[in-house]
Amino acid sequence: MTRLVVVGNGMAGARLVSEVRARDPHIRITVFGAETGRPYNRALLSNVLAGTMTPGQVRMLDAEWYADHAVTALPGVEVTAIDREAREVLTARGRREPYDVLVLATGGEAVVPPLPGAERAVAFRTMGDCEAILAAAGTARRAVVVGGGLLGVEAARGLAGRGLPVTLLHLAGHLMERQLDAEAGLVLGESLAGLGVEIRTGVTVREILDGGVRLAAGAGTGTAAGTAGTAGVTAGTAEATAASPSGAGESGAGEPGAGEEIVEADLVVLACGVRPVTRLARDAGLAVARGVVVDDEMRTGDPSVFAIGECAEHDGVVYGLVAPAWEQAAVVADLVTATDRTARYRGSRPVTRLKARGVELAAMGETHLTEDEAEIVRFSHRTRGAYRKLVIRDGRLVGAILLGETPAVGTVTRLFDHGGPLPADRAGLLFPGLSGGAAADSPVRMPDTARVCQCNNVTKGRIRSCWESGARDVAAVAAATRATTGCGSCRDAVEGIVGWLCEQEGIPA
């Protein structure tokens, strides 16, 4: 009997375990998790922070599932070494677990810049972090979030939604600069400001104090346009600190030096990026670049060892989103169970989604190309918090930004995902239904092949089939297809399809 050991019980590891068991009831499975408790959907932690979901609602597999499916789950048991020659993993408690197939799903860890006073802040990465932030928010008068990438924006919006005054500090010239161009970043910042978040871009944090954050002299105000990537946010902050380590505290705790500024806060949240957890692989002699290097089968240089999710680097890319990790898990499950020996991972075309209260965003592909490099179709309405941009090259959609509520998201995402030819009416893509017809994303016009849930690759046709089999609400469709259980951004679309099907048949939704 094949012995499968999975190191990591997060979104990638838990998904792999369920995919393998769905294909083969006999493989012996042991899964180790560094965190205690059930695995959870990390992509939905911002909803927990905002109070729109409870911790229990984002949990995934429970103890009963593991027992019913004959899976040995060891939460809170850290694997400290891999003995490739003996084909065993070693734990901090001295346990040696043999394997025939080993899958590393160790995920990523929060980047904590080497700032003086960093221990006074809380990173935003795990359920434990989320619980610590919520506990502090209960008595805090004002919060600061350091980092204006996706996680930082989600954290700031979540805390502001609880009525806490929040200042968001970001090194680059505009928010989410990896995914957004300068104008989209500006519109996003203005939307957040309208929801109670003060935005400060172009600033460098020098120190975290008991009562706030010290900024370097010449701190920006959010008006400059920047181009640095997320890595530059973290590296830039670290470099600024390392370049003058003694100067960071010269003026004394709580006392700004010449030209410096202190932003008051009794809760400081760090959202400065994520790095792959690769120590196990590196110590075992496996190839590691930014992540654990894998081929199209998600194998490392050792054919019995795979890596998936945020710790894996495929074709030079480390994906930090849900859908690629789950696609990789499906490939490994096919190979390990011999369900499909030809299964290969060919890379993903990820879509970054932000769906917080009052803010909706989808960004994909090459969003920074200029008119000299591609055809650009753009619409901006800053007072309404709306920004839409299509980036077209050789008649194909290679990038897009959709900020603000719009029915165009589904159509644009499908065109980007499939790379199909675009209609001559480019504006019609940004404003579906403008000519008087039904919106392209409405259930009436949506083809059955349209992918509704990107994370789980669920089409409208599959939702229809589930509905016809008796799944008459979103919960039943989610149980049958896993739609809505990834990033959660497709929930409105699934509700719309289910409601439309019920309406067509005269059945109460």
Q: What does the average pLDDT come to?
A: 86
Low-confidence stretches: 222-253, 435-440
The coarse overall form would be globular
State the share of residues found in helices, binned by percent: 25-40%
Number of strands: 27
H/I helix tally: 14
Q: Which assembly state applies to the chains in this document? A: single chain
The gyration radius over C-alpha positions equals 24 Å
User: How are the strands ordered across the major sheet?
Assistant: 3-2-1-7-19
Describe it.
By secondary structure, the protein is of the alpha/beta class. It is built from 14 helices and 27 strands. The strands form 8 sheets. It has a 5-stranded parallel beta sheet with strand order 3-2-1-7-19. The protein has a 5-stranded parallel beta sheet with strand order 9-16-10-11-12. A hairpin with a 4-residue loop joins strand 26 (about 450-455) and strand 27. The protein is globular. The relative contact order is 0.10.
